[in-house]
Structures are given as C-alpha cells and as structure tokens.
Write a structure and sequence with these properties.
Elements lengths: L17 E3 L4 E3 L24 H12 L10 H10 L2 H29 L6 H28 L3 H8 L1 H4 L1 H15 L10 H35 L4 H31 L6 H25 L9 H18 L14 H4 L2 H11 L13 H4 L1
Antiparallel strand pairs: 1-2
Helix pairs in contact: 1-4, 1-9, 3-4, 3-7, 3-8, 4-9, 7-8, 7-10, 8-9, 8-10, 8-11, 10-11
Length: 367
Amino acid sequence: MALIDPITDYSQTDPNKRFDEESNVASPVGAPRSTNILDPGFDLTLRPMRYPVFYEMYRDAIKNTWTVDEIDFSDDIVDLDRRLMPAERHLVSRLVAFFATGDSIVSNNLVLNLYQHINAPEARMYLSRQLYEEALHVQFYLTLLDNYIPDMKEREAAFSAVENIPSIKAKAEFCFKWIDSIQGLQKIETPDQRRQFLLNLICFATCIEGLFFFAAFAYVYFLRSKGLLNGLADGTNWVFRDESCHMNFAFEVVDTVRREQPELFDEQLEADVRAMMNEAIECEHLFAEDVLGEGVPGMSLADTRTYLEFVADQRLVQLGYAPEFGSKNPFDFMELQDVQGLSNFFERTVSSYQVGVEGDVAFDEDF
C-alpha cells in the first residue's frame, strides 16, 4: 500500500471534522478558523493544510539528523595543548564561553515567545523540531567545554560568562532586550503588538542566529583554515546547517505575515529593523575586540567589522530591504570551508546515521 503524501493527498482523510479548542468537541470544517498566521489562539487543524511550506521544512529538518557522539575531539585536544598560540587560545576561550549559553537563550525565546504566537500547527511542528536541534547544540557545546576546559573553575566561569565577561554580557543583554519585549503578551491582537512580535522574530533570525552565531562560525572556520580544531569545525558544519534552516523558517514566517498583513511593514518597522541591526553589529564588534584583543595573526578587527556588515546586508536583503553597508566578504577562508569539510565528515561517519542528508550547503547564500 502506497503512503499518502500528507501535503497533497486528502483522499484518505476525513475532512468533515476539526477540533474546536474552545468547546473541546469536534466541529464541522466550516467552523471559524484563524485566517492569519498571527491571529490569537491555537489552531489544531492540519486539514486542509494552510501552510504546507512549513511542513516541508519540518520534513527536511528530520533528514538533517545528526548526533554529538559522531564528533571526534581527540585531535582538538592535541591542538589545544601543543599547537595553538596564546592569542588563539584566548579566542577559543571566549568563543566557547559564548557558546555555553547562546543556544539556551535561543531556546528560551522559542518556548516563551514564538511558539505560542505562530498560529499554524504545521509551523509549530517545525518549531518543535527546532527546539530539539537547539538542545542538540547545547549538548554539542557542553561536550566541547568538557573536552576543552578540564579545569572546573575555568569551566564554571565560562558558564557564567553572561555575568562576568563584558563583551558576552553585552550580547546577552541585547538578546534579552528583545525577548523581554513581548514576554508579557498573552495575545498579539493590535498592529503595534504584531509589530513587536515581528521585531522579536526578526531579531531572533537576523541578529542572534544570523549574525552572532555566523560571526562565531567565522572564527571556527578561520582556525580550521590553519588546520586547527577540526572536531570543532566538523560539529560546526552541522550547527551551521541547522541555523541556516532556522533562519529560513523565520524568514518564511515574516514573508507570510507580509502577504497577509502588508500594512504592518511600514517605514517605522524598517527603521526599527535597521537600528536593531546596527546595534547588533556594535555588540558583535565589541566581542571581536575582546576575541582578537591579544593579536591573532591572519584575522584583523577591521576585516571582522567588514564581515559583520556584509552579513548584515545579506540579512536585510533576505527581509526584502535594501543593503545598508555595501560591504564585501573579506574572508576568503569562508568559501574554502564549505562542502569539502562536510563531505569529509560524511566519509567518516555516514555509516552511523539512520537518516541521510541530501543536497548541498550553499555558503555563498547564507553568508
């Protein structure tokens, strides 16, 4: 018996009933439903599917399954002990301190603010999968810290970086500013409330996942271009792919809202997005001053600033806005670390996977 395509084939489903969350009884399909993705409530009806693109994203995410146990950190330990210069060790120390809490902040925003307001069951399926992936990233970074920082006091300091390292604290405060902006909203009904939600989602996609983490990836791939910390780079390949999918989902939600409620996308919203992006660049530049403060050969603060502007322009374009900076990518090594690194990872570990990953990683699009 052939499997039914959940998106297009309704021939073996019962389209005559839906679940009414207010009365807790089955009611006819013709009963009122949410008409916009940001309408208050929890639509539970997957038939007919209003936003099949989110269900496809969910299925693609399942194909991208990986595990932390597949990553080999043994060479990294040798590099940390024998090959890294003091300035590079400082870079790595700051990087793992940021990683220690970064994805936990993302997970909190998913649970507290995004899931309850995106009113489409197929989209919430994707968010559930994303929450699993964020937990996987937390596990990866926890394993990273356990391997990289054997000293317990130093490890505790890394986990409390949002309190005791100013450059990381500034990034965390930027994140919390936008998370807290809608945390008290039980429903988003007015245009102003919906703009608040959009700013949270846009910050989440473009600044936190799309800038802070992509800047961190650049440091990782810079080290790999020098033949250092291949285990960290292998794991980052998988995290990079996850984060790219998370951003694409968020942008699709934004595009859906734009189609359904174009009046929300006024000049003020664009001005707020640009101000937010500039603030995020300043936070990340402060982190770069710290990370590169001891002088890392081959990576300058000026080039890092240009890279941040380049990434910010990519995010603005993805939102449908004109670029702000006109900067070009100064880091050639970003283009050298893409598919080859992931292919090598496949060659070592693909036999251990239950689910294969298809397609290519297009680094030129995401950076």
